[in-house]
Amino acid sequence: MKKFIEEFKSFALRGNVMDMAIGVIIGGAFTSIVTSLTDNLINPILGLAGNTDLSAFTLQIAGIELKYGAFLTSVINFLIMAFVLFCMLKAVNKLTSLGRKPDVPAAPTTKKCPYCCSDIPIAATKCAHCASELPREE
Questions:
Q1: Residues above pLDDT 90, as percent of the chain
Q2: Which residues on neighbouring strands pair with residue 55, listed in sequence order?
Q3: How many Å apart are CA 106 and CA 102, to the nearest integer?
Q4: Most buried residue, 77, 96, 104, 133, by CB count within 10 Å?
């Protein structure tokens, strides 16, 4: 049982799990901010068209009330959230790339045979494809 608890502890406290947990908590808090922005600023502005709050728009069909205004509010919340997360991700990627040095291309491992144009190893002195003696490179 002790080994099981230690394995669970190492799993739960691993960097990726902790990062994900923090991201979920921050995402929940951020969702309330976006919802407040939509409900308190954007919906009243959009509601000017109908002189009412956007979330109050409903449609009655055969005794069923369809709250399409609330659905539009959710779509607006999603679009705002997606846009902000996209901008944050771009900023994080930009910050992580600032300290990184550009990748140095790997040294070539093959060269072209001057006679048959086949790829051959750099150290080859004779082409395996056409059996030509290769000129020595200095």
A1: 2
A2: none
A3: 12
A4: 77
Q: How many CA atoms lie within 13 A of 135 on its CB side?
A: 5
DSSP-assigned letter for residue 109? -
Show the tokens assigned to 24.
């979920």
∠ Cα 8 11 14 (to 5°) = 145
Answer for the pair 59, 65: CB distance below 8 angstroms, yes or no.
Answer: yes
Tokens representing 12? 């739960």
CB-CB contact of 135 with 114 (8 Å)? yes
Tokens 């069923």 correspond to 64
Q: 121 - beta bridge partners?
A: 110
Give the model confidence (pLDDT) of 2-25 as tens digits.
Answer: 888 888 777 766 667 777 778 888
Which helix (H) or strand (E) segment holds residue 105: the answer is: none
Query: Taking a C-beta distance cutoff of 8 angstroms, is the pair 43, 55 a contact?
Result: yes
Q: What is the pLDDT of residues 59-83, one digit of tens each?
A: 899 999 998 888 888 888 788 888 8
Tokens describing residue 20: 């994900």
Burial grade of 35 (CB within 10 A; 0-12, 13-18, 19 or more): middle
